[in-house]
Backbone:
């Protein structure tokens, strides 16, 4: 269990976290959700003992300030922008990490396979793309098969395909007693990966909810751009209006104002009116 | 229920792993090779020039060779130590690698000690290369090297390197930008190598500094302490330094060596301790 009590962090007197309190139980996956600058990463850095802070952070009853070394032995951490020793190869990086954790290097091969970096093991880390660095970060984090996994914007450097692959992989890693903490501002990611969302804004924890409620609680809206045949546009708009949506013609399709959890409802409304959907995309 | 077993704050295995990586990084660094080649090359050249021929070689020839080496060490070893040390913490902070390192179950003390030991080992290898080059030239030219004095100078050079590395890490512990750390280290180098000497001389002339104050002002500078300690290696006296040297010999006699070496050791211990304290106790990563 992780217990954070009245966590406050100031930089040169300016607070970036103010009295943040939360508790994460064993086996629970929690997202720290908020816009850039909300304080998500600062919470993670305090948990890892990287920053001086006021307040209390305990992991399984141990104080982060006094037992940082022991606590980090339980945490696998994937930073937002992983920074490695660029002169080391992928295999050397994992070997170094394994040595520091007294882990057999055979495990390094296993995690390389999990993140599909085996072919790149002799490549210098400095030559890796952003996505591959992110995967290497995940491999380093998974090396000790940790009971706590902390992922700071785990898909921020990835293209759409790599993002989906990573989210699928992280879903698989949600298991048993493992605690997972994910910082994110991607709603879909959060709803797939966590049980609970803690909303941060301006350094304060302002709300807590289930992922499905997040969009509604925050009044988040999306624009769904649905492409249909030109002659079907009026029918599509009528069907959406009948289902309670605000829709307008936009080029070859319709633009619908939807709550994040209602996208599929809008699609179903058009389909049930017999309109063939050619393509769709989500705008925010 | 996950339990956490207490672990020692400093484990030898972790320190060695970090030191090995620092050593490997230093060896892969082009600046390290530039320093090493420059030091070894200059040591070889200066020794060659100091030993014009086997016929005139002997104790005096060793003195000339040693004087050249000492002058070289005074300039290059502080520069190497200070710049390598300055890059150690600030460079890792700027590149973000310190967070990668510290995300492992290691203490800040282990990280600091490992970095220091790795870099001091790299510096030792450079110094060994320089003295090795000088030794090889001396033997090839038939010079009668005083092995004990030669070894003493090498050991004192190593202590100076350890002190300068600690001073560089102290600079590094107070900034997160490697450019600022390197610039500050260069100022410290200038201060110690040039301004310290000239400043003491200028102050002595302007204020008629008493001879004992002149001596202690000079000795407070680790580079000067190194020079004085090494001069006694092959000359046995400091008369060459004028009244201050005579004062030192008369005042401290046989204890002079211990005093000078103690000054050097203090310059190793104090900066490293303050840098360690700053890094371990109060620095955000």
Residues:
């Amino acid at each position: 269990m992780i217990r954070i009590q009245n966590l406050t962090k100031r930089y040169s007197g300016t607070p970036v976290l103010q009295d943040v309190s939360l508790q994460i139980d064993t086996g629970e996956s929690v997202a720290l959700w908020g816009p850039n600058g909300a304080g998500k990463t600062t919470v993670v850095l305090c948990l890892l003992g990287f920053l001086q802070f006021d307040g209390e952070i305990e992991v399984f009853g141990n104080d982060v300030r006094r037992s940082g070394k022991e606590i980090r032995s339980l945490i696998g951490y994937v930073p937002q922008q992983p920074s490695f020793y660029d002169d080391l190869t992928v295999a050397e990086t994992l070997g170094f990490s394994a040595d520091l954790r007294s882990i057999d290097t055979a495990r390094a091969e296993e995690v390389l396979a999990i993140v599909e970096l085996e072919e790149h093991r002799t490549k210098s880390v400095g030559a890796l793309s952003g996505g591959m660095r992110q995967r290497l970060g995940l491999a380093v984090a998974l090396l000790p098969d940790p009971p706590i996994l902390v992922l700071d914007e785990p898909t921020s450097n990835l293209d759409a395909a790599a993002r989906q692959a990573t989210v699928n992989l992280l879903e698989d890693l949600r298991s048993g007693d493992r605690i997972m903490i994910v910082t994110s501002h991607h709603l879909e990611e959060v709803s797939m990966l966590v049980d609970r969302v803690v909303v941060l804004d301006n350094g304060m924890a302002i709300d807590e909810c289930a992922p499905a409620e997040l969009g509604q609680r925050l009044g988040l809206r999306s624009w769904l751009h649905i492409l249909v045949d030109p002659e079907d546009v009026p029918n599509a708009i009528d069907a959406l209006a009948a289902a309670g949506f605000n829709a307008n013609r936009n080029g070859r399709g319709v633009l619908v104002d939807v709550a994040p959890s209602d996208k599929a409802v809008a699609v179903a409304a058009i389909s049930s009116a017999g309109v063939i959907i050619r393509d769709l995309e989500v705008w925010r | 229920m996950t339990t956490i077993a207490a672990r020692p704050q400093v484990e030898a295995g972790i320190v060695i792993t970090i030191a090995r990586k620092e050593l490997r990084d230093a060896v892969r660094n082009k600046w390290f090779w530039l320093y090493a080649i420059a030091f070894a090359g200059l040591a070889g050249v200066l020794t060659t020039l100091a030993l014009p021929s086997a016929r005139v070689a002997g104790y005096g020839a060793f003195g000339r060779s040693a004087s050249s080496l000492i002058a070289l060490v005074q300039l290059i070893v502080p520069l190497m130590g200070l710049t390598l040390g300055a890059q150690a913490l600030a460079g890792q902070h700027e590149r973000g690698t310190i967070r990668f390192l510290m995300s492992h179950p290691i203490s800040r003390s282990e990280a600091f000690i490992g970095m220091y030991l790795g870099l001091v080992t790299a510096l030792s290898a450079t110094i060994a290369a320089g003295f090795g080059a000088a030794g090889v030239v001396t033997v090839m030219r038939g010079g009668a090297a005083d092995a004990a004095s030669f070894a003493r100078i090498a050991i004192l050079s190593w202590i100076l390197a350890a002190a300068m590395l600690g001073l560089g890490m102290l600079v590094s512990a107070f900034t997160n930008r490697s450019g600022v750390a390197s610039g500050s280290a260069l100022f410290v180098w200038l201060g110690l190598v040039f301004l310290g000497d000239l400043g003491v001389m200028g102050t002595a002339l302007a204020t008629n500094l008493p001879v004992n104050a002149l001596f202690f002002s000079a000795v407070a500078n680790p580079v000067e302490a190194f020079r004085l300690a090494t001069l006694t290696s092959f000359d046995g006296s400091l008369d060459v330094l004028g009244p201050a040297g005579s004062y030192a010999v008369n005042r401290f006699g046989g204890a002079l060596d211990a005093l000078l070496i103690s000054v050097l050791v203090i310059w190793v211990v104090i900066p490293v301790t303050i840098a360690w304290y700053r890094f371990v106790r109060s620095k955000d990563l």
